Amino acid sequence: MAVIRVNPEDLRERDLALKELVEYFQALKASKGRDITYNVRTYGCQLNESDSEKLCGMLQSMGLKEAREDAPADVIIFNTCAVRENAEDRLFGNLGIVKADKKSDKDKIIAVCGCMTKVPENVEKIKKSFPYVDLVFDPQQLHLFPVFLRDAVGRKKQLVNISAEDYIVDDSLVPIMRKRKFRALVPIMYGCNNFCTYCIVPYARGRERSRDMSEIIDELNKLASQGYKEVMLLGQNVNSYKGSNGERFPDILEAASKIDGFNRIRFMSSHPKDISTEIVDIVSSNPNIETHLHLPLQSGSDRILKLMNRPYNIEDYLKTVHYFREKVPHGSISTDIIVGFPGETEEDFACTLDVVKECEFDSAFTFQYSKRPGTKAALMEDQIPHDVVTERFGRLLAIQNDLAYKSNLAKVGKTEEILIEGRSSTAPDILTGRTLSNHLVNFTIPEELKVEGRSADDYEGMLCDVKFTNARPYSVDGEMVRLK
Ligand code: 5AD
Ligand code: SF4
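That is the input. Now the predicted structure with 5'-deoxyadenosine docked in place:
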């Protein structure tokens, strides 16, 4: 399949649509006597978060105001995830909920985009069961969203626009409204060629295509000069990055670390088949690259990895983990694990538990296998019964929770630099942030360090040193000792 670069005609059409929408929403504002609002609801991974930032940027440029999360809004976009069935079920549940809103306000626009729209069965279901959804469009054509929205406005019939092509769009062509004022999400590549047998992503996101390195570095320089402290280099598989002049991911990582201004450079995800000691060496020798590696294991059994079409073995995986632990002694490793892949025996699962114990993951995203129609694994015999999966899942979780707690406990008594993310969601006077190793920290500000007139929100994006006082299963408690 050809990779489509954006053609100037499309962009002219897009800008025209944008202009028409500005006028349309201005008129709507005048007739309703209030601001016209939008709400983008994001499911799934950071790449979806990044897409949502672009959708928000375009909606802002149409003159709309962002409504609070989940609040009623005039334009509601569901940016969906298809990786597991429960994310899909959540979308259908939420589409049911907005039906009444749409009935009471005919001007309201409801749109669905994201990975679910690339699965034909989902589109059929939306057409049949949710005819009041105005617009369905796919994630690869995000840059043309204003064209689709203009065409959907005022139309009585649902508009579905799903492309079969793989697009690559220069991010500078799309306005971006970044959710966090200190963190920039920067996709460096799109798509995936790996076809792990359980995974829908290669079907939803198309083949791998990398942005030009010069384009990425220009964007990073701009972000640094705008004051962003943290940058997240994103891709389904960042280590397969291939620039048009033969550049590789280590080149991007090193170049990013040399840019003045970033305190934290993060990257995800890394596929164990491509991670090299070179990446670990770059992490260990550059103080502004986070000392954290996300390395999805998926299973601890070589037999299951083969069935998953994951071309690495446990021996190699463990070598990488041990090399990282040796070179980055205060770093952390997180992983993804799937329990109950078709054919997984008790022995296979026992291997997973053994690998988890040996790796001592600092954190893990653990999933019950979810059958995805259209993938190879969905057709495999020996799908594991639900009760067996949940029982195994419970055992894995118990072990991993202990390991995560142990990792947090090892921090107690130390003092480290924290990038403050904002106030804690549970207590208004507690701040939350992360260490360079990606440990989540909740901390207080002692009286003598409090600045009059400054609220907890004002600390977002600042750096401070925190002394760790207590460990919890998923976070560390502490007290600020110095604001930087
Ligand atoms: N079932 C369960 N988990 C899945 N993942 C991907 N596809 C599936 C599936 N069908 C998990 C993998 C991947 C993470 C993003 O989601 O662990 O690394
Ligand atoms: Fe899915 Fe495998 Fe690609 Fe990750 S590497 S997105 S799990 S197919």
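The pocket of 5'-deoxyadenosine (ligand 1) is lined by residues 83-84, 198-199, 296, 298, 336, 338, 367, 369-370, 372 (CB under 6 Å).
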